[in-house]
Amino acid sequence: MKKLFILLAALMIMVPQVVQADLVSFRVGYYIPRAESDLWATEFENMDFIKSDFQASVFSFAYEHFFTNEFSLVIGVEGYTKQKLGSYRDFISEEISGEVWAFDYGQGFPISHVLSVSSTPVQASLKIMPLGRRGKFLPYLGGGVGIYLWSVRLQGEMIDFSDAEIFYDPGIDEDVIGYYVYQTDAREENKIALGYHGFAGVMVPIGNRISIDAQFKYMLVKGNLSDAFQGFEPFDLTGYQIVIGINYWF
Q1: Which of 12, 25, 150, 245 has the maximum number of C-beta atoms within 10 A of its C-beta?
Q2: Measured between alpha carbons, how far is 55 from 119 in angstroms, rounded to an integer?
Q3: Domains contained in the chain, number
Q4: What CATH number corresponds to the domain at position 62?
Q5: Can you tell me whether residue 39 is helix, strand or coil?
Q6: SS3 250
Q7: Is residue 195 domain-resident?
Q8: What is the pTM of this model?
Q9: Which of 69, 71, 80, 70 is nearest to 35 (CA)?
């Protein structure tokens, strides 16, 4: 949220120097991430996370400048952030000789960590209103590009499946496999990615200068991961959102 306010302030300072806005919009929506890259898949496979855990409300702000009655430029900023505490589905932990090990059975303690994701895009869009901007029902569509300031972080306990030991369990009189559990704080913060988006919606005037707005937007973006998540493919930040808002016309 802090990043959103910083970018919003910068937008309010810079945009009026470039164009005189004909419309300003304030919107609230619900963001649904696609979450299909391998880091997401690893978390969903091992932890008790599900995709809907990372859906969240979003807020956006935009300036819009009309070149004609049907064609306009929109510059906006919005923010998404979500963090969730999850536990490994099939493992519990036990402390042995001062070290923590994970086992796939028993009555030990949950092994948990927090996954945090955020994305703050500044977007430029071209928008078309086929019926013009005068009337009681104003459908529109458009799309464009965005610069995404994003972060992902894993904080807490992780199982190292490459570090296994054999332990004897007198309770079942068998050898069992344990995996080393370590503390991590892996993060990629304030990364920048280029993304694309498309949208469609409708505005309905409710006064001389006010209209309400309903919109569906799809965003396509992936961010490259580096040392903190070495070996993973680009992180999927793609998703869609359903938005409602209010517009003030100049």
Answers
A1: 150
A2: 12
A3: 1
A4: 2.40.160.20
A5: helix
A6: coil
A7: yes
A8: 0.85
A9: 80
